[in-house]
Amino acid sequence: MKVVLEHLTKRFPNRNKKQGGFVTAVSDVNLELPDGKLVGLLGPSGCGKSTMLNMICGLEDATEGKIYFDQEDVTNIPPEKRGVGMVFQNYALYPHLTVRQNIIFPLQNLKGDAKLSKEEMNAKAEEVAKLVQIEEYMERKPSELSGGQQQRVAIARSLVKMPRVLLLDEPLSNLDARLRLQTREEIKRIQVKTGITTIFVTHDQEEAMSITDVMVVMKDGVIHQVGKPQEIYDNPINLFVAKFLGTPAINVFDGEVKNGKLYIGEDCIKDIKGISEQKVYVGIRPEGFLINDAGTFHCRLKGVEVMGRDVNVVFTNPNHDGYCRAIIHNDYAGSANKKDICFDLKDNKILIFSKENEKRLYEEE
Ligand code: ATP
């Protein structure tokens, strides 16, 4: 099922009565989410992700715009008739019901032709329980399960009616680090197995990068970029997207294009074609640095963080506020008394942005 958003806008009355007016949570969003894919809705807190999800499932009315599931206009259809499954951060299971009863719950209100017998409901519950691998716990109460298991029950409950679209709002936030990792793989596996178009809201870029087919990056109710995770990481269209993706974060330096070359301070970084002379931001990904005593980029070594397979070399540069980080293979020994460090830079890891509007500036091929 393809999900299409046309000029979708949501304005709330301002919670601050003194200020009055409206807060625009989602602003004129046009988006086509492909059939059968896992889509990540990613952005910082307050960017409008949950509001967008709530409009897709029908819990919030759109102020303006349309929502289509394939050709069908669902904008004014109530949530229970849209055929969506929803999973929230706080599993929202009924504590007094068993796992089986929780999963069966959405099937009990089916009417007319859709009405199921007890045996049919049980069979469906067992089918989805198997899919999310909780079939051993069917007679337990939610309090007798771990957080990860409870979240799987919530997913099973949302799948039991075989929704047309599955919506997940920060489903991993209440889990510890190890369970988050495990459960996100689970979500990916379940999505691939069912083929249901799934929209996954998160503020965690690593989570979105690791499992989604398509990523939608938002800020202040506006979509900044849509694409495959790796493509967006390699080719962010503006400084916000570049900074939002990647750990450690991209290092951003004050730089300048002059005489056909890119400078950071006195250091000439590379030749430039097709960008006019101007002051710019230069973003360099942590994996873009190669230590070389004769390298062109001069910095001050501050320390080395051991990460296992790699190390983070921490350094400063007068054209960057605070610490910069480079990811270097762990055979780097460093030198306690040597404070100057020089780098060569990988060309495809250097991204240039306008100081005026923070948009990416592209060189001529
Ligand atoms: P988070 O990750 O913190 O949940 P989010 O990206 O999901 O954030 P939303 O919850 O969609 O963001 O909120 C978007 C904006 O709309 C915020 O500025 C928020 O304060 C505002 N907002 C959300 N719901 C309401 C409401 N019912 N009334 C007024 N303003 C609201």
Task: Write up this protein.
The two termini are about 40 Å apart. The chain has about 375 residues and is α+β, with helices and mostly antiparallel strands. The model has no long low-confidence stretch (mean pLDDT about 90). The strands form 4 sheets. The protein has a 6-stranded mixed sheet, with helices on both faces. A 6-stranded antiparallel sheet has the order 13-12-11-14-20-21. Strands 15-19-16-17-18 form a 5-stranded antiparallel sheet, with no helix packed on it. The protein has 9 helices and 21 strands. It has helices at about 50-55, 80, 100-105, 120-130, 145-160, 175-195, 205-210, 230-235, 240-245, and strands at about 5-15, 20-35, 40, 65-70, 70-75, 85, 165-170, 195-200, 215-220, 220-225, 250-260, 260-265, 265-270, 280-285, 290, 295-305, 310-315, 325-330, 340-345, 350-355, 360. It binds adenosine-5'-triphosphate.
